[in-house]
Batch of 2 targets.
Target 1
Amino acid sequence: MASETMTNVPVHVSMIMDGNGRWAKERGKERVFGHFEGVESVRACVEAAVEAGVKYLSIYAFSEENWNRPQEEVLALMGLMVKAMAAEMEKLNANGVRFMVVGNRKRLDDELNKTIDECMAMTAHNDTLTLIVFLSYSGKWDILNAAKKMAQEIVAHPERAEEIMSMGVDGFDVYLATAGIPDPDLIVRTSGECRLSNYLLWQGAYSELLFVDTLWPDFRKEEFRAALEHYSKRDRRYGKVK
Ligand code: IPE
Ligand code: IPE
Ligand code: MG
């Protein structure tokens, strides 16, 4: 569906990409096979997002808790990130996609961090779509980190303590890892699980949530468009009476 035919397009759509392992298992294959196939779904969603006029697409690719998976799966996922970024970046750049990674990058290895830096620098000027990959991310980590940054700022600038302590919730956004990124309008989770798994806990406070049974490797353009269609029928009230 082209942007001109769709009303009420969300600015920021976020995907909790779940079900890769089960998708592979259903086919009698190793879990990693599902992760590989899931990259195709990311590509399809990026294309569908650009076509629909979505400005921010974010994907939960690896949670802080995912570090507790077997080491071989973690290594395979990290290797896949490097490969996928290297393979996709020129096309993403040509299509005006700005690429960002948000998460606890201290836990990522040097090769991955270097690839991320290169991709972010190469695409920094683009503004058709911002693609944000949440990597080694958790909502609680983000909020705790933000609180620490705020505390550090007060220690470093005691003369500003009163001003900082009196700020409202919007003022806190600047300390989050997502500073500058609008809160997600729509969070979609695939694979039938109905939980947030420590994703955007602060930023998702008023997001519309959509849980679909489709496993992530089967979530392609048509499914993305259907999610936008669902969103367009939601009534966002923000606690008010309409
Ligand atoms: C999502 O698929 C990918 C990551 C969390 C990295 P899973 O690997 O969680 O697949 P299932 O949920 O076990 O099927
Ligand atoms: C959530 O999926 C994290 C990502 C999609 C990256 P998980 O498969 O890790 O979540 P749980 O363990 O089912 O909650
Ligand atoms: Mg899962």
Note: The longest strand covers residues 129-137.
Target 2
Amino acid sequence: MQTIAHWVDGKSFTGAGESSAPVTNPATGVVTGEVALANVADVRAAIDAAAAAFPGWRDASLARRTQVLFRFRELLNERRQELARLITAEHGKVGSDALGEVARGLEIVEFACGIPHLIKGDYTENASTKVDIFSIRQALGPVAIISPFNFPAMVPMWFFPLAIAAGNTVVLKPSEKDPSASLWMAELWREAGLPAGVFNVVQGDKVAVDELLDNPGIKAVSFVGSTPIAKYVYQRATANGKRAQALGGAKNHMLVLPDADLELAADAAVNAGFGSAGERCMAISVVLAVGTAGDELVAKISERARTIKTGDGTRDTDMGPLVTREHRDRVATYIDAGAAAGATVVLDGRDVTADSESDGFWLGPTILDHVGPEMSVYTDEIFGPVLSIVRVESYEAGLALINSNPYGNGTAIFTNDGGAARRFHNEVEVGMVGINVPIPVPMAYFSFGGWKNSLFGDAHAHGTEGVQFFTRGKAVTSRWLDPSHGGLELGFPQNT
Ligand code: NAD
């Protein structure tokens, strides 16, 4: 069985922490590795390495920094299959989905290759007589990234390409459930020529997270995970004077109007509801079927969902297992509760026969119809392959449900009415909106993030907000002495 260690100062680091946690292949139920859990001294070693590497990396020319980024991009592109296989082995998602995750991460690396343009300042000549003003953006120092299990490669890549491109150094704390992707990416940075100490990985749990939040050596924290932990991380990091962005959980609604193309809507609901076994923060978990769209839409969704092949992600399957046995059982209890509360079980994933000989953490696609907003299957983030259908009378009733939800990550409307779609994107209180697009994850050059309990902090991930998050601005006012120098003047400077 392999031991999964930390990565500090350009090499594997065993650390002195005495705890570890098992890493399991969710498709077989077999424990494949033991991940080290950092103690405080291990985290400090990583922060010290990041601090020591910072002055050299900050002062490296943009030409040098982008050369390393381009090399990282090339290596990642060539070897994406390797990374995808690692993801499938520890997360369980099917091969095509793991490759999709790598591709979306790669887009952000490509965006970060444009850092010379993104980080450019402004210059005004003669703001006052012979006085010039210019603005620059500078790196912050060592920054921490704390990531969730569901995208072990893409979510860290929402942050570290831009953080590194901008001249910061990084300590990544990945999920202890699927830690190997982080080490694979660390090794790739080394091959790309990144100086030792610029990218470090500490494996761990709350002990490691708390040290990253408290240690004054860390200047900014990017967190992604469940809402209660996001809120905790944001509050503790900012109380310690750090810059923080903490992306939390979600409950994403898809509003289907009666005039929508129901074939398109049904395809979208199935893809977005059951892709990655529903373990995506942008998964659709609720379909709001307006008026007469209901019965026909549910029939089309269930007809499609029945064709989904659940099984081992290394085989020709559509949907893999859930990440742990505990999580699988927790999701199943929501189905029990929904049925007990009066929802109609149209398709029951508890009975699934998976394409596998192993005792994996299987739960098939599940559709619950006539779900009420008071049921736990509606109110809670389930993070599994369970699609709830809520019947609503009108556009207004659907919008009111979405806007009263405590989460505001993603949403979608399906309609052929441009006026209704425009009204929706104007009125809905959610950070990412799809119009006939079910998973509206913005491209790298836009910023990703939700509203309300789906994001704590001001800055969304990547895009220009990402560049701003990982840099701070400075405005310089400059005058070079010449014979017009005017002598003493104690009044507040005014422009002349
Ligand atoms: P999680 O909150 O359990 O863990 C996230 C990170 O926090 C991990 O690195 C974990 O080790 C750490 N952590 C866990 N408990 C902690 C504690 N008590 N104190 C400090 N740190 C702790 O989330 P998860 O189960 O890994 O991921 C799924 C969740 O992430 C879902 O809620 C999902 O919606 C959310 N998510 C959100 C987005 C988004 O963009 N908003 C993206 C992906 C995932």
Note: The first strand starts at residue 2 and ends at 4.
